[in-house]
Every structure is written in C-alpha cells, then in structure tokens.
Design brief:
heterodimer, A: seven-stranded mixed β-sheet, B: alpha/beta, Rossmann fold, seven-stranded mixed β-sheet, 10 helices
Chain lengths: 361, 253
C-alpha cells in the first residue's frame, strides 16, 4: 500500500520535486505559495538527493536561474503567484526561444496589480497565450487536487524535456492551500552528469573534444534564419497540440449542456453537475487538464449533441474565448465568473446556469 | 635569408590561443572587447579548463562572445547573467563559470542580479567591461558615463540634475562580504593587458578555491561610440576615465 500523507497542495509540489529527481529549485516568497520553498528548506534535500534549493533575490532572478540550470540539462523549477509570474515572463520568453525545459508553478491569486491574496484564475491568458514577448507557447497543466499538484510535477518535467520547452502548472490559491491526502510515488534518482550528457547533447556541460561548442541562445539576427527558428518552434507546438491534449469528463456522453471548468472550479462544478442531474437536467462537465494544448477537438465533438456550453472561471472571462473558438458558432456559449477572490458555491453556479439556459428558450 | 627560413615553429614568439575561433570579430577596430576576449581565451587555454568552463554572455556588443571563444555558452537576457551563472555553478560545482557583462548590462539593468550574486559569494568570475557607453544600441548614456560626456541621449553632455552621477559600481561590489577579489584593470597598452590577464587568471583560480566571487572590471574604450580614432580613444580614456575609475586592486582577500 503506497504511503498517503495529508498535506497542502503547495507542500505536495515540494515533496514531488524531491522525489521525482528534481535538480534545483529557485524561488522568491509570495502568498499563497510560500509553502513550496518553506517545505523544501525544511526537507533539506541537498542532504538526501543532492537537490539545490536557493532563495533568489527576485522572481526575475529565479527564472533566469532556471535558464542557467536548464542550460546544463538539469531538472529545474520555480514556483510563484501571479505578480511574480508577471516578472518571470521575460525569462519565460527567453527559455522558450532557446528551447529550454523547466517547470514553473503558478498558484494564482486575484489581480490585476497587487490584487488580492485570495484565489483567482485571471492568469489564463498570460499562461496559454504567451505572457512574454514573441510567438511562443508553454505546456500548461491545471491541477484540481493536491494529488494533481504532486503528480503534475513529474508529468510537467517529462513533457518539458520531451519538447525542450517550459511547462507551467497553473494552479490557484484554493488548490495550493487546501489539505488532502496525497499518495507519494516511488523515488526517482536524479540523473548523473554522464546520463545528462548522453540524453541531452545540447546541454552546456563543458565543451569536450568530441563535439562542437554548445551555445544556448534565442538570438538570430538574420531574418531567414530567424524565421526558420520560429517555424521550428511552431512545428513543435503543433506536435504538442496533436499529442498532449489531456482532459477529464463527467457525464458528458448523454449531456444536453456542458460546463467547462478547470482547477478549483472544476471541483466545484462536479457538485453542480450532480445537483443538476437530481433536477433532471442533463448537465455534463469538461475539465481541461492541459489548458495549452486546449481540448479543442473534443469540444467540437461535444457540439454535435449538446445545446449549450458554459465556461465557469474565477476571472472576467478568459478560457471562454477558447471555448468559443472551438465551438465556432455551432451552439451558444455562456460564461459565469466571479472576481476578487470570491469562489462560488455549486448552487450559485447551478443558479447562474439555469438563468442562462432560460434565456436560450 | 628566405622568409621560409624564418617562419618556423622554433622561431614562433606568439600563437593564437586555440580557444579563440577563426570567426572574424564584429567588434569595431580599436574596441577593447577583442583584447579582453583574447586574454580570457589564453587563461582558459593555459589553465587547461576548456572542458570545464561555461561562459554566460550578456546583451550588448559582447552578446556574440560565443562566436569567438570555443567553449560552451549561455546567452542571457539583459542584466541577468549572474542569475544564470549562479544556478550553473551551484548545479555543476566543479565547473568554472564566468559572466561577461558590459556597463549597461551589469551596472544598470542588472544591478540586482550582480549585487546579490556577489553578496551570496557565488564562486563565479565576473568580467565587467566599462566603456561608459551603450555600444550596441548606438552610443547612449550608460550608468558609468562621465559628467559632461556627450552621448546620443546626453547630446549636451551628462548633467547631474538630469542624469545623476557616474556609478562606481565596482567600489560598491567590493563592500560585499561575498567577494574575495575585486580589481579594476585596462587593456589600453600591452603592459596593462598583461596585468589584466593576470587578474583574470587569479579570478579563475579563486573560483576553484571556493573563495567567493571574483570581479574584474576592465576600463575599456569604445572609439565608435565616443566618436574618436582608436589612438585618441585610448588617450582620452587615460586622461578622463582613469581619474574617475582608478586602476588597481580594490579588494584581495
């Protein structure tokens, strides 16, 4: 029987990092995710696995430490919350441009600006549309439980290295702070320098006579070269869209209506679906697990037998734009969102849903 | 005697370091970067540490340093090189890690990163090229631009009321307990270049001894940015830059 421990979502990230062979964590304190670094510092993994944990002087520095660590072929990560992620967007663009793998966890709070330390989902656009400058994408995973927080660390690293691309865990203050039972997975050892050199021949491990120098850069001043580099990135993103879409459904098979929700709101909307079914309403739930790549094809399939789709978010309406793009006008799309850190109850969501379908008829 | 009799290995007094590539440098004739690159290449070569050295290049004229030194390189965002070097050194402690940064990169946009890397005493080498101007973007004011000095953003000369004072960041760096060796050198003549090479070598040796951060400023000329001939630029540097940025060791622990 695998070990299960009661812990916060944020603590789960820290334990997962140590146990999945992460080489380095670089971070800066910010509510509501400071438990990640605090847990790591308490665990002192440098004595057990040799993992480096360092408190940086800013989020700007944290993300650039990731650039350095990732350049060495190391599994490196940071975590932060919304304002901190904004500071990291420059670095994320460079990491994506230089095709470097890393993991960033964003335990989202309400914005804009300093906003609130209460939960939010207003960083969806920043996460899936870019955030930093230029044409780039990050793999974005949205956990809905403390177990997801744990499991997505390993998954995010796997995808980041598979595609040599930054991966983001887009969590929120609810998932980060709530305590749940988490099953610890078997320990994975960190890679040795020899294994890194074999697996990641692009890494800056020191130029040896048997190979050319490795240079990790996002710079290409020649227009034709730069267009080709961009095309390489775009081809990679198309591969991700083809292979890495993940989602979960609840009673979508016979559904007349579907709610689309991720993270903490998908947990709440599970109850909304149960309530609706008791009222005889055939409501289903689609929970995108990857926000990029987005489950566009599945949403298109759903439009063949559903009458209405509603996106439920802790934002003013961000993911709903991707739902609309996928639905492409075939059925009406509604939205229900709360702001300021207010998390609606399942009943409030159901009420909003009923109001909106009333208008359809 | 025929020239062929002269060109023989035993008569050779100088050879290009094998760390220097054959790529033609994009630096302007007279620029100090080429000389400093050569000195770093010679130090890496003489210490036999090509396989163990990771360079971090900045944003600025020396963004392309990776084209000229045949080692592994990471190209950093503007000012962030010390953060990259921090992680690289901590994750691969047996490597030699150095940043190569200009005055805009290190003393303006990257002040937080350089201060904290030095304050943590990262066992890295910092090469700081101070030519008092933004070369790559076309000669704008740098934090180290002298008072009265004309640049494209101080066309009437740097003015205290508008622009504040030239930043002696190396003196600030020397105050930090994490630094073990802080020195200011130049490469305007061969004697100065030899001293700079010794300083760079010492800095690399320090990082293996885990003594903390070694910081080598090289007061440099940017004759294009300064709109002078290379010879005039060196003279101007000695007359005007050295009084403000005096040459010599500031700290050697």
């Amino acid at each position: 029987m695998a070990e299960k421990i009661l812990m916060k979502g944020n603590e789960a990230i820290a334990h997962a990092a140590i146990r999945c062979g992460c080489d380095g964590y670089f971070g800066y304190p910010i509510t509501p995710q400071s438990e990640v670094m605090e847990t790591l510092m308490n665990e002192q993994p440098w004595n057990s696995t040799g993992m480096v944990v360092l408190q940086a002087e800013s989020e700007t520095s944290s993300i650039n430490m990731l650039y350095g660590g990732a350049s060495c072929g190391k599994k490196v990560m940071t975590s932060s919350s919304s304002p901190g992620i904004s500071l990291m967007c420059e670095g994320l663009s460079y990491l994506a441009g230089a095709e470097l793998p890393c993991l960033v966890a964003n335990v989202v709070r309400g914005g804009p600006g300093l906003g609130t330390i209460q939960p939010g989902q207003g960083d969806y656009f920043q996460s899936v549309k870019g955030g930093g400058h230029g044409d780039y994408k990050m793999i974005v995973l949205a956990p809905a439980s403390a177990q997801d927080m744990y499991d997505f660390v390993d998954l995010a690293f796997e995808l980041a290295f598979k595609y040599r691309n930054p991966a983001l865990i887009l969590s929120d203050g609810v998932i980060g702070q709530m305590m749940e039972k988490v099953e610890l997975r078997p320990m994975k050892p960190r890679l040795t320098e020899k294994e890194i050199i074999e697996r990641y021949p692009w890494a800056t491990t020191g130029k040896t006579p048997d190979r050319k120098q490795n240079v990790l850069t996002s710079l290409a001043l020649d227009a034709a070269v730069h267009e080709r580099l961009n095309q390489t990135l775009q081809n990679k993103y198309r591969q991700m869209e083809e292979n890495e879409v993940r989602y979960e459904t609840l009673m979508c098979e016979d559904a007349d209506y579907v709610i689309v929700a991720y993270g903490c709101m998908s947990r709440i909307c599970e109850s909304t679906v149960e309530l609706a079914r008791k009222d005889g309403i055939k409501l289903g739930l689609l929970r995108p697990v990857t926000l990029y790549p987005f489950p566009t094809k599945y949403i298109q399939e759903l439009t063949s037998h559903t009458k209405f789709m509603m996106s439920v978010e802790l934002s003013a309406g961000q993911m709903v734009e991707d739902v609309r793009l996928a639905v492409n006008g075939k059925i009406p799309v509604g939205f229900y969102g709360r702001l300021g850190g207010i998390v609606p109850s399942p009943e409030e969501v159901l009420e909003a849903f009923k109001e909106q379908i009333k208008k359809l008829n | 005697m025929d020239i062929k009799d002269i060109i023989k290995p035993e008569n050779r007094v100088y050879a290009k370091s094998k760390i220097l590539t054959d790529t033609p440098m994009h630096y302007c004739p007279g620029c100090s970067h080429g000389t400093v690159h050569k000195l770093i290449a010679e130090v890496i070569d003489e210490m036999g540490i090509q396989e163990k050295t990771i360079g971090v290049s900045p944003v600025g004229c020396s963004v392309f340093a990776y084209n000229y030194l045949d080692i592994d390189w990471q190209q950093a965002a503007h000012g962030r090189a010390p953060a990259l070097a921090t992680a690289t050194k901590r994750l691969m402690p047996d490597k030699y890690v150095f940043t190569y940064q200009g005055d805009g990169d290190l003393a303006s946009i990257g002040t937080a990163e350089i201060m904290h890397a030095c304050n943590r005493g990262e066992n890295i080498v910092v090469i700081f090229i101070n030519n008092a101007i933004y070369g790559m973007t076309g000669g704008q004011m740098a934090p180290t631009t002298l008072l009265g000095m004309k640049t494209s953003t101080t066309p009437y000369g740097r003015n205290v009321e508008l622009n504040g004072y030239p930043l002696k960041i190396t003196e600030l760096i020397a105050q930090l307990d994490g630094t073990c060796y802080v020195t200011r050198q130049s490469v305007h003549n061969s004697a100065a270049a030899r001293k700079t090479k010794r300083a760079i070598r010492k800095a690399f040796e320090n990082s293996a001894l885990k003594k903390g951060t070694s910081f080598v400023e090289v007061v440099s000329s940017c004759n294009s940015g300064w709109k002078m001939t290379p010879v005039k630029a060196n003279e101007w540097m000695a007359e005007n830059m050295f009084p403000k940025y005096p040459i010599g060791d500031i700290k050697d622990v």
